[in-house]
Design a protein that fits this description.
The complex is a heterodimer of chains A (77) and B (503). Chain A has one domain: Orthogonal Bundle (Non-ribosomal Peptide Synthetase Peptidyl Carrier Protein, Chain A). Chain A has helices at 2-12, 32-46, 57-60, 63-76. Chain A is built from four helices and no strands. By secondary structure, chain B is α/β, with parallel strands linked by helices. Among the domains of chain B are: 1-13 and 27-167, 3-Layer(aba) Sandwich (Rossmann fold); 330-405, Luciferase, domain 3 (Roll); 410-501, 2-Layer Sandwich (GMP Synthetase, Chain A, domain 3), CATH 3.30.300.30. In chain B, the strands form seven sheets. In chain B, strands 11-12-13-14-15 form a five-stranded mixed sheet. In chain B, strands 16, 17, 19, 20 and 21 form a five-stranded antiparallel sheet that branches. The chains are: A mainly alpha (77), B alpha/beta (503). At the A-B interface, helix 2 of A face helix 10, helix 11 and helix 15 of B.
């Protein structure tokens, strides 16, 4: 899953080193348009629905946060 | 008519001394504190400046910043705010164009200010707050002022690669704020939710409406606009009643399903501008907030934020297109053909603006100014009007419609972007041979097509260092060769057809 997530992220923001960033939202690295794009891609790629309640900094500040988020949504199915 | 916008602050500070003027998540500042803070700083500033000169201000997204702007005004100067998140390269260009005598920054930005290419004096606002107020010196400065004196310079994208500084007088800002207040029915009970960066044109509403009415502005942290549930929660916590936001700030919550979480229940007045509002989005807002006033606003920085407005009277349908409406009070709109003759009734022409809202021109750029700020063609009296570069048509009922741009300027996420400026920045990269930047409007995506050995990562990294983030393309396509027209120019239409429309 990590590889797939990184691929999506790199496509959207080729300039960001996602492996090392841990403050993508709080540090203002990703903007709102990035989030819209990322949520759309994740929903398609992992067949999940990321609801508005899940759009909190902790879930998007780092790749690890995103993996946790998607795993939790997959478990719900 | 007031002669100086500070009179608004002084009247309101007398009437509501202890009311909060500006608030952020950590701090707040009352009207009397805004006045005294600005005066303390100005009392030292006046010793370092001459009247009617620019002072560059570098100050963060917080309640102190409006007071720092106003301190410059108390000193008889005009402020030129810099976006601290913009690349240094761009900021240095702005400094080179503005040639300020000094930079005024907040404590947090002092080291940053020192890193800029500037050999003049750098003063720290917090240090100057300890200066005793020198009422006499400030009164002397005020004595010399008129409402045609400049209040600020705000920078906007320029196609040649250098930002243009739009210099604006007190009278223009007062005209706009008065007119906006009437349309939006603003009063002292309003609480504004500020979205715009404080150095950006849209922030003049959030800064000056409180001063005029005794209302308050809450500065919303930027990251809340990426997390719409938190955004709606904070609108409710702070009981925000009125916003003047970019269209994208209103479309994002609907795209991400924020209404499933909650409704901003105190929000009664919504003005949107910056780009065309999709009615499919407005419809959702209208259904969720049936009692709220919705106003579509149109206009460039050069016309002091805006020049026309349209009050949305009916419930919209998905496919409706909103008109941009009628001119604000003390603004006039007319349409011109390419040869500066008047456009026939019902035909499309370039939207031109006349009246108090027309700004003073591009600072230190007389040639650029002369191109867009022209003599009013229908009068023998000396009068300058502004040609927007936007196309419009006046409907049978007298309302103005928007019909796109004459040139390659786009509106992206509420920001004005010259595609040519991005191309200039890409051309500076050695491993790029040729490039073309196009806008994919349905996807709201800036796309770069280029030839050469550079990777997308190389280019993105370089551009992040030279352009503001919203101007960096989000799609990179490396072509073996760009298509050309017989005259040797890059064939933009072919690229658009092959890689955007048909992709």
């Amino acid at each position: 899953m990590r590889e797939e997530i990184l691929e999506i992220l790199e496509e959207i923001r080729p300039d960001v080193d996602f492996e090392s960033e841990t403050s993508l939202i709080d540090g203002g690295v990703l903007d709102s348009m990035d989030i819209v794009a990322i949520v759309g891609e994740f929903n398609d790629a992992f067949d999940v629905k990321i609801g508005v309640e899940k759009l909190v900094p902790d879930n998007f500040n780092s790749v690890d946060g995103m993996i946790k988020l998607i795993e939790s949504l997959e478990d719900e199915d | 008519m007031n002669k100086n916008i500070l009179e608004w602050l002084e009247e309101t500070s007398k009437k509501f001394p202890d009311k909060i003027a500006f608030e952020d998540v950590e701090n707040s500042i009352t009207f009397s504190e805004v006045e005294s803070t600005a005066k303390h700083i100005a009392s030292e500033l006046v010793k370092h400046t001459n009247v009617r000169k620019p002072v560059i201000v570098i100050s963060g997204r917080k309640v102190l910043t409006p007071a720092v702007f106003l301190s410059v005004v108390y000193a008889g100067c005009f402020y030129a705010p810099l976006d601290v998140t913009a690349p240094i390269y761009r900021l240095n260009k702005i400094i080179e164009n503005t040639k300020p005598s000094l930079i005024l920054c907040d404590k947090d930005n002092f080291e940053f200010a020192k890193s800029l290419e500037f050999d003049g004096e750098i003063l720290i606002a917090e240090d100057l707050m300890n200066t005793d107020i020198d009422e006499k010196a400030l009164a002397d400065v005020r004595e010399q002022s008129t409402n045609k004196d400049p209040l600020y310079i705000i920078f906007t994208s320029g196609s040649s690669g250098t930002p243009k500084g739009v210099q604006t007088a007190h009278i223009s800002v007062m005209t706009y704020i008065n007119a906006y207040s009437k349309v939006m029915k603003i009063d002292e009970n309003d609480v504004f939710g500020n979205q715009s960066p404080l150095d950006y044109i849209a922030a003049i509403r959030d800064i000056y409406l409180p001063l005029k009415h005794g209302a308050s502005t809450f500065i919303i942290p930027k990251q809340y606009f990426s997390t719409p549930a938190a955004l709606f929660d904070v609108l409710n916590e702070r009981k925000i009643t009125a916003v003047g936001w970019s269209v994208s700030a209103l479309t994002l919550p609907t795209k991400l399903g924020a209404f499933e979480h909650t409704k901003p229940m105190y929000l009664k007045k919504i003005c949107f501008s910056g780009s065309v509002m999709p009615c499919s989005c407005l419809k959702i807002w209208q259904e969720q907030l049936p009692e709220t006033l919705f106003v579509n606003q149109y206009g460039p920085t050069e016309a002091t934020a805006s020049c026309t407005y349209y009050v949305v009277e009916n419930k919209v349908e998905d496919t409706d297109v909103l008109p941009i409406g009628q001119p604000y009070e003390n603004y006039e709109i007319f349409l011109l053909n390419d040869d500066n003759t008047e456009t026939e009734k019902g035909e499309i022409g370039e939207i031109c603006v006349r009246g108090n809202g027309v700004t003073m021109g591009y600072y230190n750029s007389p040639e650029l100014t002369a191109r867009s700020y022209i003599q009013y063609p229908f009068s023998d009296e000396k009068e300058i009007v502004y040609k927007t570069g936007d196309l419009g048509r006046i409907r049978e009922d007298g309302l103005l419609e928007f019909h796109g741009r004459k040139d390659r300027q786009i509106k992206h996420l509420g920001h004005r972007v010259e595609l040519g400026e991005i191309e200039e920045a890409v051309k500076a990269i050695e491993s790029v041979e040729e490039c073309a930047v196009l806008y994919n409007k349905p996807k709201e995506q800036i796309c770069l097509f280029y030839s050469g050995d550079a990777t997308a990562k190389d280019i993105a990294k370089h551009l992040r260092a030279t352009l503001p983030g919203f101007m960096v393309p989000r799609k990179f396509e490396n072509l073996s060769e760009l298509p050309h027209l017989p005259n040797g120019k890059i064939d933009m239409q072919e690229i658009n057809k092959k890689y955007i429309l048909e992709a």
